[in-house]
Amino acid sequence: MDTTQSREKLTRLADGLSYLAVFRGLLSLTTMSSLHQMLIDPTPSTVGAFAHNLYRHRGNLSDYILKAAYEDENPYIMMKARRETVPFVMERAVDNELLILEQVSMITPSDIASAMGEFLRLPEWENTKHDFRGMYKKRIDDLFTKGTGMFAKYSAFMMKGKELVPILSPDPQRLEDLHEYKRERQMAVDNTKALLEGLPAANCLLYGDAGTGKSSTVKAIVNEFAEKGLRLIELKRPQLHLLPEVLERIAEDPLKFIIFIDDLSFSADDEDFSMLKACLEGSAAGRTPNAVIYATSNRRHLVRESFSARQGDDIHAGDTRQELASLSDRFGLKITFLRPDKDTYLSIVDHLAKKYGVDMPADKLHEQAEAFALRRSGRSGRAARQYIESVVAGL
């Protein structure tokens, strides 16, 4: 193919990308934008910029474009997520655009060099032949477990300002890594399975002593069921006013969500108290069938109450105290994690020692673990882990 024919080919593919409608969001991606620019004007600068960007995605052009198409949150896939009937013209547009993307995915460095009329050694990349239309259809079939947009890429999220952003390095904890408290964890697992199966699931309060594995349980459950369509959104205590917005953002998403609030407690005059109570039960914002709230707390009643408040000038003080204590009752499932006794604590130590490959006589291991717990304000799963990690580190 001579230079003129090669340039015509690149121009045709560049025009195809320009015409994208359903997948138009791809053009806002840095790598796709630099690819588009290279097709329009193949120069050493545009080729270098494109290759630089593609190398951040492991250097396979076909794999990159297919993955970008999978993760694109476009009008077509959102209609599919809502189980709506997609117009025929949009179905046809999707087919045509996937064919264009497939053709673009097979552009090689030789095609670019030929269009430039140069024989310099250009940066190289790989290509893999993919059936874009067939594979995207399979993706639609898996929509309710794989998700769309950023929910297809990540399993855990948090709020940054008013924007939902992914947690790039979530806690890798798995259920199999956690020892003891099996009955308590199974209650949370069974509730989560009900959510994933479309059955009624309860908002869940995990309360009890510090370091007993309440937060680890929630994170391990998400890791366990991420492949089945479960995602986690973590809200910090000062972000609770954003809860209605978060629930609205995910209301029509095909996946299932745990809204995670760690270390939850309120003061008696906290303005977010009533909002959370309404979301847990009784308001339209709280009725989101694809989401549940999982909160952890060291307090049974969640609201801190002072003796001075009890002696205040409230005529109906008893009603007020009952109102404050009622928040925890709005959680349909309450799971208690008590501080472990000596045998349970040492069982956790033995489990972690085996996992980390600690080779130490059992009596010495237990003696040091007990001494460590005394220095750390008592026995807990956290103290056991910190002790074993200190042994591994040689401290």
State the CATH architecture of the largest domain.
3-Layer(aba) Sandwich
Give the C-alpha Rg.
Answer: 27 Å
Largest sheet: 7 strands, mixed
Q: Give, in spatial order, the strands making up the sheet with the most strands.
A: 2-1-4-5-7-3-9
Overall shape: globular
Quantity of strands, as a count: 9
Strand content: 5-15%
Cα distance spanning the termini: 67 Å
Assembly state of the chains shown: single chain
Give start-end ranges of low-pLDDT stretches. Answer: 305-311, 313-321
Mean pLDDT: 87
Q: Which bin fits the share of residues in helices?
A: 40-55%
Structural class: alpha/beta
CATH fold name of the largest domain: Rossmann fold
The H-level CATH homologous superfamily of the largest domain, spelled out, is P-loop containing nucleotide triphosphate hydrolases
Tally of separate domains: 3
CATH class of the largest domain: Alpha Beta
What's the helix count?
A: 19
List keywords for this structure.
single chain; 395 residues; alpha/beta; Rossmann fold; seven-stranded mixed beta sheet
Descriptive notes:
- The protein is α/β, with parallel strands linked by helices.
- It has three domains: 3-143, no CATH class; 156-337, P-loop containing nucleotide triphosphate hydrolases (Rossmann fold); 342-392.
- 51% of the residues lie in helices and 11% in strands.
- It has 19 helices and nine strands.
- A seven-stranded mixed sheet has the order 2-1-4-5-7-3-9, with helices on both faces. Strands 6-8 form a two-stranded parallel ribbon.
- The longest helix has 18 residues, at 88-105.
- Mean pLDDT is 87; it is low at 305-311 and 313-321.
